[in-house]
Design a protein that fits this description.
heterotrimer; A alpha/beta (772); B alpha+beta (276); C mainly alpha (212); A: 772 residues; Rossmann fold; Dimethylsulfoxide Reductase, domain 2; Barwin-like endoglucanases; 18% strand; B: Alpha-Beta Plaits; 7 helices; 21% helix; globular
Chain lengths: 772, 276, 212
């Protein structure tokens, strides 16, 4: 038959109908299979769900979870209602652990590097003998000059990692992109505590927060959110008042009753000006020995240098910001803070991330002494240490100074072996440290990564030994910050790894190595579970706390059942003597924030980076739920954006979606412009989290203009006194590139503003507190 | 005696004064309800699926600026505009105050989403795809919707049903597994909390801004608010005036008369932005 | 108007194509629907020729002994291979009463257990993905003695409360006497069947009771 146009169309039509019909009537994916498993444990019955208690390990705060398991597959993660820190609540990050578990890009078996280092070319090898043998011989030859970089470790894994490192003669350090060392040092200096405190927001009447994005990413957001909900509308209490003093309009600032924009790095000055007003007007809580706290006349003298009249112009406060005279505003703020008790002052985030960050945080936390909020209900709750003698409640986390030293050691050949677990320092450290180059060029260096996923540092590894994901593995954690009393969380495997994956648990590999290297004396355990069991027995021997058990076995079962152990009676100190002359010594160490690099001039801007609400620093950037959860303020997903104020956008003639080049003295990155009414004219903000070069497509498949890492352009300024990265201490210039992209965000194209003035037209209705 | 079916009337209360916009509900919903991965393209084409989403509204100009968050989900209206326009009765209102979408009845006309004033109905423009391994996470209690089908928030009806079966029919106390006497077999707020029968977003919400219960449940957190909201409707229907300045209770777009089963509580603002 | 000579072959060809393709389509649709989920009286070949008649009718094993979850939860569950071995560790099909093929079939089950290979059965009753069906609830209802009159899926009155095995036959037919499992004769299990039965028995018919 001759193929004419007409019958070609007829045939095509028939073919299409046939295809649709076959497709439509076909039976979907596996619906006609029904399987008799070989063995049927009681908890694997079809259609029946079981909930197992465990711990969330997606972010460093310790949250108890329950995992819904059906037919051997984890289906859902929720907060563990019994667990004291999060009390049944969870963050978006907790849920996404499931996607790590069933991620398509998990490394199925050990990999050995086959191309040049950093090329990301690997060949699969077997565990036995290749993987394990390579690790053993590397440890034998290089163990004494090795560095193990892990996530911040607490509990038994912390003990194991540090003992292992010392047994082989190496070093172990925790890694966090935006480390808490400055905050920790401030807590140590002000409260003389080694453990991070908790804030009793639930019972507080006044929250004064400086720079801490505590509802989104800072320290323990789920716990703080829970407290915040009660702080706002809890029963049997008045609504609390909340001021946020912050250089960026964060999600936390959006929830505050009043946001006070401040120049980055001047938070400490403002805190001291408030202290000055409280002292001068005698507003301190009864029983507070102001004289001792201030440090006598010399202290008063020192404090007087921070009178609101002097501080307000320095910190960039204008009468528009404060709705009147800024000096009066600060004085009134000090008065209401001192009079509305219990009140709590919180500082962190960008407030501790300029070179004078330690001074800022100390000044902020010292305010709590003045209003008598240390160790009381509604104030700062101090935490006790670990219930185990030898198990650390907080591991050592490296500061920028440490990483600079280690990079130098790698470059000089002094460090011959790197072990990585749960950390991606190549992505998470400022590019100008040149860690990537140091690893790539080191000739005699062996890099082992225990990561279940490829990331930027693992891509430089010689050997990748895939670890189990936390839902498949044992573990424990000492809550930090705890809820004010000793709290242990237990992590148990809720499912087995899928059949096509062959991961080995990192602690088990370490213990095996310890055995094979003859280090049994330091690490006598055959596997990690038995180590945890020993910890459980030690808790049982304490004979106190939440678990009432007849025997050690019973105790262990209940520990796993409940997801942890806690003892509400073992509280931290409730009374702390403030160091004599605390305010004076803080005032004397005050310094103005300094910005190296470009310096402060009229066409440069303060760069205030921030942790992404769900991705944090991007270590979990391969989890699609975290990528697709809109940023609360901008609703942007999947991309790196740069937040510009209206006036900045006008000045640069930029509209939303334009690609901006952001340049510091170190380097430049490109990002998509998002124009926001809430960004101060001299500030730009860029989230961390994107810009990964290796690993899953979910993390890497966007071009550099849409996905870049703000760490690449940060100045390597250190915080004085702690050596941490002063990540808010960079000035940048902005350039319009002329390119633009469609911004992937939830909100529409026009700025979503409340419309109309009649109440009926508003979507979000509000009410004055006096009416409520 | 088989426990007879207990009538419920479900309702959600959203306290805007508690909401911090943290997105926990959004991801919790996606995990529970087999929502396809929202890729960058989906967002760029404005086709992202978020059965519950957090809308953010700006107010004012720097430096007197505010951002307000409001979680928006299907309002389960009593007078739902989406229902009468469905030519195949794929969406209807059931006795329990839920607006229900029956997926395999839907033919994808999208009339309902056009008619929905809250834009909470989502059309599957594509066949949902997950990488093979991620399919292991899919919740067997929820259908995977194929291309050409409208979907929306169901108040996590699969969880409510599980609760009803376990507590009201089988009479099992969620935590202890003890038998409940036949007369007391009514799913109450405590049992919903303990048995994980609350909607996923409510369960996750860390500030307790989302609350869910039977509107008539004395022990639940929503009754008082729904009583007040119903009173408001009654007053208005009888031509009366509701003094809005002294109550936090309101419903979204109540002036169009949809009578949602979701009630919002106003945000409290000590320092409101001056409006032009 | 007669078509021109040129058009005629084209029309004939078009007609033939339509008939042939139509026929193929009809056959395709019918064959699709006569597969186990939709089809009537169709017993797919199973990897192990398991005779329910031997187990139930001859040896009086209760349904819920193998389908352990049927009175407890949603799924009836096919037994694990381990569970077959409870008996077949000792029973090897060599007795006088056993049929000729019994030995080979039992050997298959034992091999599956020894080699750790699950058995993949062909499904006979397919429950679509969007339907929630709880076996336990139905058995609880039909075995409840306090309900005086119940109705089966064809509207037949059930006055005396049946036991579990009898309850199963209401929908599944007399599986216990069958060598090969197949849907109940003359009975397709479709939504109408469910709905009729729910109406007869005055139990909820809200869509969300079954649809998920």
């Amino acid at each position: 038959m001759k193929l004419t146009r007409r019958n070609f169309l007829a045939w095509a039509g028939i073919g299409a109908v046939g295809a649709v019909a076959c497709e439509g009537f076909g039976i979907r994916y596996g619906e006609l299979d029904i399987q008799s498993p070989v063995r049927l444990p009681e908890d694997l019955v079809r259609g029946t769900d079981n909930w197992y208690a465990s711990l969330c390990r997606v972010c460093p705060s310790c949250e108890g979870i329950v995992v819904r398991v059906m037919e051997g597959r984890a289906k859902k993660v929720q907060g563990n209602p019994f667990f004291p820190t999060n009390q049944g609540k969870s963050h978006a990050r907790c849920e996404s652990g499931l996607q790590a578990l069933y991620h398509p890009d998990r490394i199925p078996s050990p990999l050995r590097r086959s191309g040049p280092r950093g090329s990301g070319q690997f060949l699969p090898v077997s565990w036995q003998p290749n993987g394990i043998d390579s690790l053993r011989s590397a440890l034998q030859a290089r163990g004494s000059s090795s560095v193990m970089i892990t996530e911040p470790l607490r509990g038994h894994l912390g003990l194991l990692a540090s003992r292992f490192a010392s047994a082989i003669g190496g070093e172990q350090l925790g890694f966090e992109s935006l480390d808490n060392n400055t905050y920790r040092a401030a807590v140590k200096n002000v409260f003389q505590q080694d453990n991070l405190p908790d804030f009793d927001l639930e019972n507080s009447k006044f929250i004064l927060s400086f720079g801490a994005d505590f509802l989104s990413t800072w320290i323990s957001p789920t716990r703080f959110n829970r407290g915040y909900g009660e702080f706002r509308q809890g029963e049997h209490r008045d609504r609390g008042m909340f001021y946020q003093i912050d250089s960026r309009f964060s999600m936390t600032a959006a929830s505050a009753d009043k946001w006070l924009p401040v120049r980055p790095g001047w938070e400490g000055h403002i805190a001291l000006s408030l202290a000055q007003v409280i002292v001068a007007e005698n507003l301190q809580a009864t029983g507070v020995n102001v004289d001792a706290l201030v440090g006598g006349a010399a202290g008063t003298q020192a404090l007087n240098n921070f009178r609101p009249e002097l501080v307000a112009p320095m910190a960039g406060l204008t009468s528009e910001m404060t709705g009147g005279d800024p000096v009066e505003f600060l004085k009134n703020l000090a008065r209401s803070f001192a009079k509305t008790r219990p009140a709590v002052a919180i500082g962190g985030g960008s407030a501790g991330a300029t070179d004078n960050g330690l001074f800022n945080l100390e000044a902020i936390y010292a305010l709590n002494y003045l209003v008598g909020s240390v160790g009381v209900e509604g104030g700062v709750t101090l935490n006790p240490g670990s219930p185990w003698d030898n198990v650390p409640a907080a591991g050592k986390v490296g500061s920028l100074a440490d990483w600079t030293r280690i990079t130098e050691q790698i470059r000089s050949g002094q460090t011959k072996m790197l072990m990585l677990h749960g950390a991606d320092p190549v992505h998470g450290l400022p590019e100008s440290l040149r860690l990537r180059d140091a690893i790539a060029q080191a000739e005699d260096l062996f890099v082992v990564s225990f990561s279940p996923f490829l990331d930027d540092t693992s891509a430089m590894a010689d050997l990748i030994l895939p670890d189990r994901v936390y839902l498949e593995d044992w573990g424990d954690d000492i809550s930090e910050p705890g809820p004010g009393y000793q709290t242990i969380g237990m992590q148990q495997p809720v499912v087995n790894p899928l059949a096509d994956l062959d991961p080995l648990s990192f602690p088990d590999v370490l213990l095996t190595m310890a055995q094979e290297l003859g280090k049994e004396s330091q690490l006598p355990w055959s596997n990690f579970k038995s180590m945890l069991r020993e910890g459980s027995d030690a808790l049982f021997a304490l004979n106190r706390g939440s678990i009432d058990a007849a025997s050690a076995d019973d105790f262990w079962n209940r520990l796993l059942q409940r997801g942890g152990w806690w003892d509400e009676k073992s509280t931290g100190p409730t009374k702390v003597q403030a160091p004599n002359g605390l305010l004076r010594s803080i005032a004397e160490k005050a310094s103005d924030p300094e910005f190296s690099g470009i310096g402060i001039d009229s066409d440069s801007y303060y760069l205030v980076p921030f942790s992404h609400n769900t991705l944090l620093d991007g270590y979990n950037g391969h989890l699609p739920w975290l990528q697709s959860a809109p940023d609360p303020l901008t609703t942007v997903t999947w991309q790196t954006w740069v937040e510009l104020g209206d006036s900045t956008a006008e000045k640069l003639d930029v509209k939303e979606g334009d690609i901006i080049r952001v340049e510091s003295s170190k380097d430049s990155i490109r990002a998509v412009a998002y124009i926001s009414p809430a960004v101060p004219p001299d500030v730009v903000s860029i989230p961390l989290g994107q810009g990964r070069q290796h690993g899953s497509d979910y993390a890497t498949d966007r071009p550099g203009s849409e996905s870049s890492n703000v760490m690449d352009i940060l100045e390597t300024t250190q915080v004085k006194g702690t050596g941490s990265l002063a990540w808010a201490g960079t000035r940048v210039r902005l350039f319009k590139t002329g390119e633009s992209v469609s911004i992937s965000k939830l909100e529409g194209d026009t700025r979503a503003e409340e419309i109309g003035t009649t109440p009926g037209e508003e979507i979000i209705k509000t009410i004055k507190p006096e009416n409520h | 005696m088989v426990a007879q079916r207990v009538d419920h009337k479900w309702g959600m209360v959203v306290d805007l004064d508690r909401c911090t916009g943290c997105q926990a509900c959004v991801v919790a919903c996606q995990a529970e309800n087999n929502i396809p991965i929202n890729t960058k393209d989906y967002f760029q084409q404005r086709r992202a699926y978020e059965w519950i989403r957090i809308e953010r509204y700006w107010e004012g100009q720097f430096p007197n600026v505010k951002a307000k968050f409001i979680p928006i989900l299907c309002q389960h209206c009593e007078n739902a505009p989406c229902e009468p326009v469905c030519p195949v009765f794929a969406t209807y209102h059931n006795d329990e105050g839920m607006n229900v979408q029956i997926y395999n009845r839907c033919v994808g006309t999208r009339y309902c989403s056009v008619n929905c004033p809250y834009t909470v109905r989502f059309f599957n423009y594509w066949e949902p795809v997950w990488p093979e391994r991620l399919r292991n996470q899919l919740n067997p209690d929820v259908t995977v919707r194929s291309r050409g089908i409208m979907e929306k928030c169901s108040f996590c009806v699969q969880r409510l049903r599980r609760g009803e079966v376990n507590v009201e029919r089988r009479g099992l106390e969620p935590l202890t597994g003890e038998r409940i006497p036949t007369a007391d077999r009514k799913l109450n707020y405590r049992q919903m909390k303990e048995g994980n029968y609350l909607p996923s977003c409510v369960q996750a919400c860390p500030t307790n801004a989302l609350q869910f219960a039977d509107q008539h449940d004395e022990t639940g957190p929503v009754k008082e608010h729904f009583d007040e909201a119903n009173e408001q409707i009654e007053t208005r229907e009888h031509g009366g005036h509701v003094d809005e300045s002294h109550t936090r209770v309101y419903r979204l777009f109540e002036e169009i008369g949809t009578k949602p089963n979701v009630v919002y509580l106003k945000k409290v603002e000590p320092f409101p932005v001056e409006k032009a | 108007m007669m078509p021109s000579a040129k058009m005629l072959p084209l029309m004939v060809a078009g007609g033939v194509v339509t008939v042939v393709v139509g026929f193929v389509l009809v056959v395709l649709i019918i064959s699709t629907f006569s597969n186990p989920p939709f089809g009537l009286g169709n017993a797919p070949a199973q990897p192990v020729a398991f005779p329910h008649s031997v187990h139930v009718a001859e040896n009086n094993i209760q349904c819920e002994f193998c389908h352990r979850n049927v009175t407890k939860g949603e799924a009836a569950t096919v037994p694990a291979v381990e569970q077959c071995l409870f008996c077949h560790q000792n029973i090897d099909g060599t007795s006088d009463t056993a049929s000729a093929i019994a030995q080979t079939e039992i050997e298959k089950v034992r091999t599956a257990f020894e080699t750790d290979q699950p058995i993949n059965w062909e499904r006979v009753h397919r429950l679509p993905d969007h339907v929630r069906f709880i076996h336990e609830a139905h058995i609880r209802y039909f075995t409840d003695e306090t309900i005086p009159v119940k109705y089966g899926i064809n509207g037949e009155e059930i006055v005396e409360s049946p036991d579990v095995a009898q309850t199963c036959t209401i929908c599944h037919g007399d599986v216990g006497n069958k060598v090969e499992v197949q849907p109940k004769t003359g009975q397709s299990l479709k939504m109408g069947t469910c709905l009729d039965c729910h109406r007869e028995n005055s139990v909820p018919t809200d869509c969300t009771v079954c649809h998920k």
